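Before the break, one more example. Copy the sequence into your notebook; we will annotate it together after we see the structure.
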Amino acid sequence: MTARRRLMNLGKRIVLGSAAAATLLAGWLVAGQPARAIPEAPTEAPPGALVTKIVYVGKRYAEPPPLSLLDKILSDEGAQGARLAIKENNMTGRLVEQHFELIEVVAGEKEDVVPKVKAQLDEGHGLIVADLEPADLLAVADLAEAKGAVLFNVRSSSDELRQEQCRSNVFHIIPNWAMRADALAQYLIWKKWRRWLVVYGTTPGDKDYVAAIRRAAQKFGAKIVDERPYEFDAGSRRTDSGHQQIQTQMPLLTQGAPEYDVIFAADVGEAFGDYLMFRTYEPRPVVGSQGLQAVAWHRSFEQYAGTQLQNRFEKQAKRVMTERDFTAWLGVRVVGEAVTRSAKNTSADVKAYILSKDFEVAGFKGVGLTFRTWDHQMRQPVLLSGPRALVSISPQDGFLHQKYLTDTLGFDEPETKCRFSK
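Here is what the structure looks like once it is written out:
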């Protein structure tokens, strides 16, 4: 079989998850020889092209500074991922006379983001990547003008948004707390680490994560031996005495607990979780919001061509790709995939296509990613990563499902509380 025929057969099977891969393949098919350098994506729509406008909506929420000086405060998190995805959409779009444009709308900390989104909806821009906290996301989704829009949640892991507060016009790219807790629970059960000491903070996110941890323990047969709130004033390791204060706090926090295999931390606000490692009364692993974490993306991930995505992002942004960068990238890629495949770009057409059996998008995780029809959560493998290296990927071997293995993570259809209003 000739190299050209082999490539044509490959082209019939390939999923256009990477615009660069699609363009590279096209170069082979046209020339019948090694492809030359991939051309830059067009910045302006060619004559006659189908133009699709995607709105990235964000807000500059007040966030605590990182615990470590290694982690810099980012002002463009999320937006950079969306910008990269638009370039990749256009690299594919140029082959099929389509063009994609990104409209960035970012509200200040004290601003109301709703009027800004309403203005975009009034302009007919109904494809929205929403980098918003739950209250703002729901306020936007409940706008009368947003009834026919499609919003992609790329920021909030709130289980409530997938349960009682679900909306038919909202699709969730980022994994929820239930998926994260289940992903870790499967690995802990596989390791036979069934006894968990839960340590949690006091923020709403901490409480949501604790609820997901309890649910995962019951679901997979683990035992929570004790739950302990973090009630100290967090010290600062950026001061002369901060590390000494922390070195005293953590043994006191974890002393006297029943025998346990791991500490499951729920510290979404990053107030104390990093301090648990190497400082507990008993030498035990830390998992959860710190230590071994369940994430959609991590800078250490290299499999399934993840390195190529990381490299493209770093070339553009001059920094590593964060989880929110990845979910924003994936939200824009979902639109690109739907429009490229269906050749239709209205909100109604995009929604219908991404809920159809024909849709899947590649996210550099080895399988095509799809949406659950019952709560609009994207089903996807979840990475289990330490601070500097990938440890595993869930679902774990042995955890089976009659349809999708990824539906062992989070809320399956029989247990959902989501009821979409018409």
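The CA atoms of residues 59 and 200 lie 27 Å apart. The chain has twelve helices and 15 strands. Try to locate both features in your own notes.
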